[in-house]
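@channel sequence for tomorrow's demo:
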Amino acid sequence: MVAIVDYNMGNLASVFNACKLIGVDAHIVSNPDELKNYGRVILPGVGAFGDAMEHLESTGMKKAVLDFAASGKPIIGICLGMQLLFESSEEFGDHKGLGLIPGKVIAFDKSKMNMEEHKVPHVGWNKLFNKPSPLFNTLTNPYLYFVHSFHAVTDNKYIIGRTHYGYDFTSAVNKDNIYGFQPHPEKSHDNGIQILKNFMEI
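C-alpha cells (generated this afternoon):
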C-alpha cells in the first residue's frame, strides 16, 4: 500500500488518481500514526515551503515522515514535496526543511537567464536529462511538466536528473531510499505514469 501524505498543501486528488490509473492501492493519509503501516510514501506539495513545514510540524507529520524515511522504505517527494526533503529553503525567508538530503532550495537566478525567453515561475513541458536510476527504468531524457520558481542545490552524488531553463538545475535526486522529483509525474502523461510505476517497483 502507498500513503499519499495529506498536510493541507498537496495536489492530492491528481496524485491519487494517477496511482489509481496504474492499479496501485493508494490512500490519502492525514493521521501521522498510520504512516508506518504503509510500504511506500508519496510526499506531494503545492505552495510555499515555510507554510508546508509549519503544517508538517503542527500535524505531527514531520516526525512521521522522518521515521518512515529512517525505516528504509521508499519515499518520494514531488515538486514542493521534493524541496522539503532538503535542509533549508530561502523562499520568503530562511526555513529549515526535513534534512533528509543535504542541500538547499534557492530561487532561479535571473542574472543567468534571458528573461525574455525564460519567465519565472518555470511552467510547462521540459526535458529531464536523467542518470541511470530505477526511477527512470525504460525512460531516457523524458519530457515532463514543471511548475516552480525555486530549485534545489545539492551535491552531484545525489543528483539523478537535471533540466535546462536558462541554466542547468537539479530536477531529480536520490539518497538511499529517498527520492525527489521536481516535475509533476501526475501531470506528465505517459512519461509521468511510467515514473510512478517505476517508483512502485523500487
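heads up for whoever presents: The two ends are 13 Å apart (CA to CA).
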